[in-house]
Design a protein that fits this description.
- By secondary structure, the protein is of the alpha/beta class.
- It has helices spanning 32-44, 70-81, 103-111, 131-149, 165-173, 204-211, 217-233, 235-247, and strands at residues 3-7, 10-11, 30-31, 48-49, 59-66, 87-90, 115-118, 155-157, 178-181, 192-194, 196-197.
- 40% of the residues lie in helices and 16% in strands.
- Strands 1, 4, 5, 6, 7 and 11 form a six-stranded parallel β-sheet that branches. It has a three-stranded parallel β-sheet with strand order 8-9-10, with no helix packed on it. Strands 2-3 form a two-stranded parallel sheet.
- Helix 5 (165-173) links the parallel strand 8 and strand 9 (178-181).
- It is globular.
- The relative contact order is 0.14.
- The structure holds zinc ion.
């Protein structure tokens, strides 16, 4: 399977321009300079940049969550220069807000061959909602995107990574064919695609290790512990504690 990379914003300055966002989002602000290094590494290793998520190992797929403005200003031109494309997952409620993509940006990106997908209506934690609540997030965001962009939206990226059987079932019923997650759990293979969350403090060595599946012991242990803590605490409590700790 291709290596699917999950980015958020690619930032030129030290800080992203988006003020109105969740605590911890800055952990995923990859600096432009680092992004260029990562692209160079992929090229050097002869990775093919593709949109085919079920492709071969030596292929890389780009995905971008949250729909930050820099996806249009910074990311899209770089991908176009490389004749590459990406999946861009937007939060329907935030389109056109300060620091986020506008409808015009999205239309132009779509015209250039980028794929636009849903990242929920409000970016809320789906697992803490009732079935009706989940349905509202997933169908309304899909409808808003489809009617404004006049195209079929069949990709979803799970907001903030929290999902369970109900979320996947409702997403499929809503018509999503590809569901992008950040960590794949046992029993969620059909239609769910695991991604590598690229973090802002990764050295090129850490990026290389994550992409080639040779994560060091420390990185692997951290990932396992995080999953374990999340499972024990439940998604909502985990998110709360995480945001309190990040505020410190
Ligand atoms: Zn997000």
């Amino acid at each position: 399977m291709a290596r699917i990379l999950m980015y958020h914003g690619i930032v030129d300055a030290a800080k992203s321009a988006v003020i109105d966002r969740e605590k911890g989002a800055e952990l995923y602000d990859v600096k432009l300079e680092e992004f260029r290094k990562q692209l160079a590494w992929l090229k050097e290793q002869k990775y093919v940049l593709t949109m085919d998520i079920s492709g071969r190992e030596q292929e890389a797929v780009f995905t971008f969550d949250d729909g930050e403005k820099n996806n249009f200003n910074v990311v899209a031109p770089i991908l176009q220069d490389l004749k590459a494309f990406g999946y861009f997952f937007v939060i329907a409620d935030r389109i056109g807000r300060d620091g986020y993509l506008s409808w015009e940006d999205l239309a132009r990106m779509k015209m250039a061959g980028m794929v636009i997908g849903s990242h929920g209506l409000t970016h809320g934690i789906l697992t803490s909602l009732s079935e009706d609540g989940i349905r509202e997030e997933l169908t309304k965001s899909k409808f808003i995107l489809e009617s404004n962009l006049r195209c079929h939206i069949d990709c979803l990226s799970i907001p903030r990574g929290f999902y369970d059987e109900r979320v996947v079932k409702i997403a499929k019923e809503a018509g999503y064919q590809k569901i992008f997650v950040s960590d794949k759990r046992p029993g969620f293979s059909d239609g769910c695609y695991e991604r590598i969350a690229v973090k802002n403090d990764w050295t090129i060595k850490e990026f290389a290790a994550a992409v080639s599946g040779k994560m060091g012991f420390k990185m692997r242990l951290f990932t396992i512990l995080k999953l374990l803590v999340r499972r024990i605490l439940g998604d909502k409590l985990y998110d709360l504690i995480r945001s309190v700790l990040l505020r410190k």
